[in-house]
Design goal:
The chain is of the alpha+beta class. Helices cover 18% and strands 52% of the residues. The protein is built from three helices and nine strands. A nine-stranded antiparallel sheet has the order 4-3-2-1-9-8-7-6-5, with helices on both faces.
Length: 195
């Protein structure tokens, strides 16, 4: 029987391996920017999810618990003397998961960062009609969605943020990889596993 400490270590090693297998490129362009070119910077209004899409989202998360725990590894890049360096940190997670009647996926996270001995709360929403999103893949065990929004910086400027979220659900375990691009370029990635 695997004890909790060993299971946590195995989860963490799996998350770290997943990052290493998909190598981070600190100057990487968003795949959406590469595919769309200048159209990337245009925003279109969302249509509501179809009934079939809502049913598929419900099916995707049907076998998961509504209260989850797990771990994450977050990687971001810091420029030091004109050279990018990868910085990673592990996170311990407690989460609640809710699927709204319109298909919106809401994750309420309590995040603890052991290396810094700090914690914070975070609410993440996917398929939110108030943001611009595109469903890239949706099946009974996987979902890939790209969400774009503008973040105001100062009085006259803003930056374009795009989050690509890859969900995989297997035997009640949610694996989620999110990658944040700012103005079309890599900013941060997070691999999390919740059960």
């Amino acid at each position: 029987m695997i004890n909790i400490c060993t299971r946590s270590m195995l989860t963490l090693l799996t998350l770290v391996y997943a990052f290493n297998a998909s190598a981070i490129n600190c100057e990487e362009q968003s795949p959406t920017l590469i595919a769309e070119g200048d159209a990337y910077y245009n925003f279109e209004e969302n249509n509501a999810l179809t009934r079939q899409q809502k049913q598929t989202v419900d099916t995707l998360f049907a076998k998961t618990k509504k209260r989850l725990e797990g771990q994450a590894v977050e990687i971001y890049c810091v420029k030091n003397n004109d050279v990018f360096e990868e910085v990673s940190k592990t996170q311990q997670l407690k989460a609640s998961l809710d699927i709204a009647s319109d298909g919106k996926v809401i994750m309420d996270l309590a995040v603890y960062v052991p290396e810094q001995k700090t914690g914070f709360n975070e609410i993440i929403e996917y398929l939110n009609m108030n943001s611009t999103f595109a469903i890239k893949q949706l099946s009974a065990n996987k979902m890939r969605v790209s969400t774009k929004y503008r973040r105001v910086q100062g009085t006259n400027t803003s930056s374009l943020h795009e989050t690509i979220a890859d969900f995989s659900v297997n035997n009640g375990v949610i694996t989620l990889r999110t990658t944040l691009y700012i103005n079309g370029y890599f900013a941060l990635a997070r691999n999390m596993q919740l059960q």
